[in-house]
Amino acid sequence: MGKQKISSKGVQNSCCTIATLWWFYLVAACIKVLLFPSYRSTDFEVHRNWLAVTHSLPLSQWYFDETSPWTLDYPPFFAHFEHFLSMFAHFIDPKIVHLQEGLNYSANTVVYFQRGSVIVSDLCLLYGVYRLTRNLDSRKQKLIWLLTIWSPMLFIVDHVHFQYNGFLIGILLISLSYLEEGRDLLGGFFFAVLLCFKHLFAVAAPVYFVYLLRHYCGGGIGRGFIRLLIMGGMVAAVFAVAFGPFFHLGQIQQVIRRLFPFGRGLCHAYWAPNFWVFYIMSDKGLAFVLRRLGLNVQTPTATFTAGLVGDSSPFSVLPQVTPLMTFMMVLLALSPCLLKAWKNPQPQMISRWVAYAYTCGFLFGWHVHEKASLHFVIPLAIVAVQTLEDAKHYFLLSIVSCYSLFPLLFEAQEYPIKVLLLLLHSILMWSAFSAQFPDGAETARPHTEKKVDRHESSKGSFVIGWIEKLYLVGLVTVEIWGQFLHPLVLGDKLAFAPLMLISIYCAFVIMYSWIWQLTSIVKSR
Amino acid sequence: MVKGKKTSSDTVSVVDGDGEQSCCWWWLVHKGTTTTFLIVGLFALLVRAAVSLHPYSGFANPPKFGDYEAQRHWMEITINLPIQEWYRNSTNNDLSYWGLDYPPLTAYQSFIHGLFLRFCHPASVSLFTSRGHESYPGKLLMRWTVLSSDLLIFFPAVLYFVIVHYGQPSRSRKSDIGWHIAMLLLNPCLILIDHGHFQYNCISLGFTIGAVASVLSGMDVAACVLYCLALNHKQMSAYFAPAFFSHLLGKSLRHKHPLLEVSKLGFYVLGTFAAVWWPYLYSKDSVLEVLSRLAPFERGIFEDYVANFWCASSIIIKWKRLFTSESLRLLSFIATVITCLPSMIQQIKSPSNRGFLYGLLNCSFAFYMFSFQVHEKSILLPLLPASLLAMEEPFIFRWFMQFAMLSMFPLICRDGLVVPYLALLALFILIFDAPDQQRVKESNYFYNYLGATTSLQLPRAYSQSHARAFGDSRTTMSAPPTLPQSTNTAPAGAASQPPIATPAFRAFISRLSSSLRQGFSQRRPWTELADRSSFSKPESLTEAYSRIRKNFNYFRVNYVTLIVFALAVSLITHPFSLLVLLGLLASWCFLYFFRPADQPVILFGRTFADRETLGLLTVLTIFVVFLTSVGSLLISAMMVGIAIVCAHGAFRMPEDLFLDEQEPGSAGFLSFLGGAAASAAAPVVSRV
């Protein structure tokens, strides 16, 4: 009886699924519209300038224009995307796309247009999520929508700070959904397209390469070789469409220079909570200890954020870090996952692997933005609903990575908003996870047993362990210290300390998440 | 506790449990009322915080600014002057510049918030120098004072109400409760006025909800105190006074010692008032001084354009010109009392919780519609009991909220809050119609009982008694009657003459078809309408308006066709509404317009006079159009059509268009209506 009920429910739900998905999107859109007048970072002007550049200049000038300091440094597809938007922008207010007059233009038209364009481009995310979840049962579906469409990180980064991450991650999710369905060619195609939108997504390219090589191009040498040719040809075609015109114009070097500005430092102005935070801190600590021991340790002249100025190292004791080293470390961290993908390329594991790849990139990469944590938190939401362990891990990870974004919105006006977003997200997640993984009394019931025993590991209920609780209390303490006590106790001294504290404290969980993901990937069959 | 509840209901029924599991909102509401409230409350706070980013009333608009400046000025006055001088005109306190005109509790609240502001940002509340103070921290702190008052008073009051109202909910009702909490907390009007426009309605409304919840839980003393606090924060809370008074009186009368009970409540009321007014009780003059600030009788009967009876009817009856202010005061008083009376009497005779809530709605509505000096923001007061009754009357609640929003639109436009207005309205509708909800359709008492009975039963009743006659007559025209006459109805004379063949009807039809044909021949070529090259963005609003006017003159027929098309599409996609509408039209046509003059309407054996028929039909029409989905469908279709037309008109450059010949203005597409009405009116007139 239970089974019949479930199946009839499935039929019923499938017709209201899309309506519910739209409902999630539209409710989120209402909040996003309300956030129109909130703080916007320089990224807003960056994107406005790109609108102007792509609209008023010919293709050949796009990567050369230097009217504004915010030059175009995304791959060509994103430039075309901006060009597409600029057509509407011109219609709404010609000043938006004016190269000189539009500089730092901040009228309502430009704010509404750009903010609106982010909301509309989020439809891509919506489609990606829909494709990934359309075959799941309705409770899991809702959980995933909750975690992705209502992700507070997307609100903070895309709709307040201003960027188009929802759109780009949407393309990634579309690609993942094709891979999960076994349609590898389309999956590869969308990933190639994504790379031509934003090259930072290339961190997952090794995983894609190994997976596609083994999964798509497997089965005999001859068939494999033909398939390799097809896949290679398609990826090459995508890149040719994107970069071909610039190659033809002989500007490819300029484009590459813009895309990979290695003049920047190891860390971003605000340190992303990654491995290098520990590296820097241990360097500082060692220097301090050695100085106490009477050794003559020079204080470094260079900073971590300013980049490689000459040969001076920003570190006083530990060896200098170069981009090549970070690259090798990312590859090294990726290797267990690549090995797994090589041995047994399973479609249902691809989301985990890709998320893991972005975690590695985030932890060990060169000049990582804290916003890059979106790249793995959103794909991980897809797998978070599968087992209880996944849910517990995701619960902590998503709270912490959202918290690590707090310094992005530093103005007092947005303070309640970011805190409320995080609180709401946490409590929604807690409520939804505990409904998904109910306690013993619930599991004993006959009708739920059928659902639960499909995933064997979800025995027991969703409870936050005491270590996690302690950690979250610590998180609150860090926030209270940084916001209220630090200015009261220390005044203006050590103004950077609260931010540093946040990134160190958050880095612990990101490291934990990396190790957890690594073990879960290694352990998986 | 939650766990225990779950296991206890385990044994009750398993099927029921499965029903809940499949509920769309189980993941949100399964933890119980408090957790649900926490989630919805956080969301509501987020919405409020986001709305508070937007401008406030009188933003950068010297010299008087707006309500924001008024509230800030009160803080400035209260923290810098001694308490006796707050309501007194003096060199330090110029009452003509936003003098305090709310009761003392508002002043105390301003005092506390003023202290907070002085602590954080002294420049924003310093005496004299801070007039018209506008700054980033100033705005932020002011916004936070509203947010905190909302959080401290309104939210707990709503939680208290929900807990009292639903008690220990059965599991299947959990999602309903979540929905009701959202409806209470996400009231778009309240959010817009408090956090956009800038006021502290949440405090007085919060106290009122607290008082209502106390009444529901039987704590009459607490209710009295809380309601007095609400009254002492905003005198407008008096809108609820008759309901509270009659309900508590009715309850007391049922007590063992009625007099004792009444005097006890009276004692608490007086005590609360005395406590609040204590600083002014030292002399009669000072009390009168404060009172004179509160009574707005020197102002007119209504302000601006408020959606109440006086303002709406003043289009036809110029109240302000016809009557003196005194007689208007009397008139409005009488009207208010009369409209309040039914629920008051009912509550005194048989007080009940449910009746009390309806009484609140009735009284506050009566005050809003008929009392003296109503402001458009006062719509918040009748909205409150409507939202408390959202579960019982979702249909009324929804319409009321939408019209309340509409009535506030001019105010919102002035404040530059159109974007949050639209977003909040959309959010309200989205949450009202949250997917996978059976409740709205199932438990819609009003819609089910009245809507269904009247919109279905009445036409059926009519058709049963009359359509037979018409049907017969139609068949007599083409073929001999084949339908057997039923015996119980069909009074004499109903079937004898075919009413359809009246000259008026024939004239109407022929005129209609000819003028339709003629009108349609005046249409412009559709290709001209969609000429790609002649589209451009209008430079300004005035230009857009002039374009629309020119284009409308030129493309009149096409535009009307477009609107008709939009109407047709929406009606065809909603066949039920189409049927209802056709039924309505048919009943008008056959019962009134084209009925031969010598045949009275006979229904159920009773003869109806012409005037009665007209009245009945009018009531029926109003009912069908305004209280069922037909009206909203028609209006929305019209709106869509008009929006398309306006958009086209605004973007189409009218330069290359000219009128071929000077057509007389009235001889347009719709002229047949006038003619037809005249010809149709002829028999009507002849009948009278």
UniProtKB/TrEMBL annotation, chain A:
Topology of the protein relative to the lipid bilayer: Multi-pass membrane protein
Transmembrane segments annotated in the record for this chain: 21-39, 112-130, 142-157, 163-179, 186-213, 225-247, 259-281, 321-341, 494-515
Pathway: Protein modification; protein glycosylation
Major location (coarse): endoplasmic reticulum
Keyword Iron recorded: no
EC number annotated for this UniProt entry: 2.4.1.-
Source species, domain of life: Eukaryota
Subcellular location: Endoplasmic reticulum membrane
Descriptive protein name: Alpha-1,3-glucosyltransferase
Organism listed in the record: Stylosanthes scabra
Upper taxonomic lineage: Eukaryota, Viridiplantae, Streptophyta, Embryophyta, Tracheophyta
UniProtKB/TrEMBL annotation, chain B:
Compositionally biased intervals (Polar residues): 473-490
Xref: InterPro entries: Glyco_trans_ALG6/ALG8, Prenylated_rab_accept_PRA1
Chain segments annotated as transmembrane: 37-56, 140-165, 177-193, 205-230, 331-349, 355-374, 418-435, 554-572, 578-594, 614-645, 665-685
Keyword Endoplasmic reticulum attached: yes
Record region (Disordered): 472-494
Topology class, membrane: Multi-pass membrane protein
Enzyme Commission designation: 2.4.1.-
Chief subcellular location: endoplasmic reticulum
EC category: transferase
Domain of life: Eukaryota
Keyword set, alphabetical order: Endoplasmic reticulum, Glycosyltransferase, Membrane, Transferase, Transmembrane, Transmembrane helix
Hydrolase in keyword set: no
Pathway: Protein modification; protein glycosylation
Cell compartment(s), UniProt: Endoplasmic reticulum membrane
Family: Belongs to the ALG6/ALG8 glucosyltransferase family.
Function noted in UniProt: May be involved in both secretory and endocytic intracellular trafficking in the endosomal/prevacuolar compartments.
Protein's UniProt name: Alpha-1,3-glucosyltransferase
Organism encoding this protein: Stylosanthes scabra
